[in-house]
Amino acid sequence: MSLVIVGSVAFDAIETPFGKTDKIVGGAGTYAGLAASYLFDQVKVIGVVGEDFGANIDIFKSRGIQTEGIEIIPGGKSFFWAGKYHNDMNSRDTLATELNVLGDFDPKIPASYQDCEYLLLGNLTPQIQIDTLNRLDNKPKLVVLDTMNFWMDVALEDLKTVLKRIDVLTINDAEARQLSGEYSLVKAAEVILAMGPKYLIIKKGEHGALLFGEGQIFAAPALPLADVFDPTGAGDAFAGGFIGYLAKIKTINFNNMKNAIIYGSALASFCVEKFGTERLQELHKDEIADRIKQFVHLSQFQLD
Amino acid sequence: MSLVIVGSVAFDAIETPFGKTDKIVGGAGTYAGLAASYLFDQVKVIGVVGEDFGANIDIFKSRGIQTEGIEIIPGGKSFFWAGKYHNDMNSRDTLATELNVLGDFDPKIPASYQDCEYLLLGNLTPQIQIDTLNRLDNKPKLVVLDTMNFWMDVALEDLKTVLKRIDVLTINDAEARQLSGEYSLVKAAEVILAMGPKYLIIKKGEHGALLFGEGQIFAAPALPLADVFDPTGAGDAFAGGFIGYLAKIKTINFNNMKNAIIYGSALASFCVEKFGTERLQELHKDEIADRIKQFVHLSQFQLD
Known about the structure:
Shape of chain A: globular
Largest sheet of chain A: 9 strands, mixed
CATH architecture of chain A: 3-Layer(aba) Sandwich
Structural class of chain A: alpha/beta
Radius of gyration of chain A: 18 Å
CATH topology of chain A: UDP-N-acetylmuramoyl-L-alanine:D-glutamate ligase
CATH superfamily of chain A: Ribokinase
Number of strands of chain A: 14
Distance between the termini of chain A: 44 Å
Helix content of chain A: 25-40%
Oligomer: homodimer
Number of helices of chain A: 10
Largest interface: A-B, 38 and 39 residues
Number of domains of chain A: 1
């Protein structure tokens, strides 16, 4: 029984008000895989890199993440993204996007991944997400899908097709409004849940996240931080922590989904404390337990 | 022992995507007073109106709110504000502001108000807030102050003076950033708490509220609503519910402050369901208890 994560594995160059990096390892599959690895021990990643990725693959191996599904294209170059965050850290300029080998990504599922029970379909073309589902021998117990406004603009029909086959959709508030045509997030959730997903998670960055499903709503805060060094990958770390917790707990219900969101939020809060994946490579179990306690103090109250 | 609220008592004309009103009763003192009256029975309002306010004073009396401190200026006209909300309900245009009798407001404290233990200084000039404190025979047990960016622009020194004499400051996130010069709300809170208040509440509208103090942070969600009919007065209803709860509970500590924020948020959530003060005039205890339960379901989780 495993958790399979399909997502980009890439190089990023990041500039924030706190500094800038050279080419460092990034990608949604990387952030989500690292985050999930702290909660569940059978994490398997599907992605594609170029030959230039080289020994960077050890980032996964050192966390016990299986990489048989990360295809290495001989002579190819890995996906590269460069971006610069503004002072408010909520907006950024993309300075470079070089798709490279990701442009022809055709996800292959190794036989050893066919025990997939939990599947995270990272933000890629909806067609890749559909192909992945088609190539699995068995329907996973839980499918979480991440997407973005770009696919709503250029591949809406494919996106609607894949939404019928998933359990949890994660998008941000602007994307929920775009996908539904409704400004109220309550109404937006109603429209989106009618498209297929059983649960909808609306990510609101520094304002936390909302979970809709089973006729209920849960609001989780983000941890207020003195410094956000680098927001890159926070949403992916959130998704990885979320599905990693559910893979560990194994029972899918609204209460466990609430807890999964708290774990996802905790992993995201670590992610932004340093540049790139640095913080997600060095976490200790105690730190995670302490961070979860912070979330309890932050949001729990006791009425008389 | 009483809760005294100093604030505007006024007429508003409001336009939202859901409709528009004629001149209806509004004002921070009105919204806060009504909200507090559901939690505490000794609510006393200080304000000023013109002769045109007439029988509208019954809005207070029907909720058991004492009005001896609402001065009626013979021949005067009440403060009038007209505004139009945009589709997102988060921004609005002011169409008219007629200060009228509020322009010369000099708060007078009736002898019957000198038992004040809980004081809410609504958003007025910092000088009026200082005068009110000076005219009370005894220092109240708890002083909550609301203010806005305008006073930071035109009366910053007076504002800093009054901040040294209060316990709780309520402002929104943009105002916290302006007052502190810090973008991070954690750092902003540190700077602002060093200015005098023991507690800082940062109101974030649809994203809820943050409480800082005693080295702790609490994040409360706002209730996600399908329709926000009219946001006018929500922040004042929040403040009234907040201090009303504390006046009832009587013990000031961080845990009770958390609960007070939940009660304030609940009252604010009712406020926006209808135009103006309509919803705050007709609440039943059961509705409030049910709404509090909704906040519990919305934000509380149970880890294994």
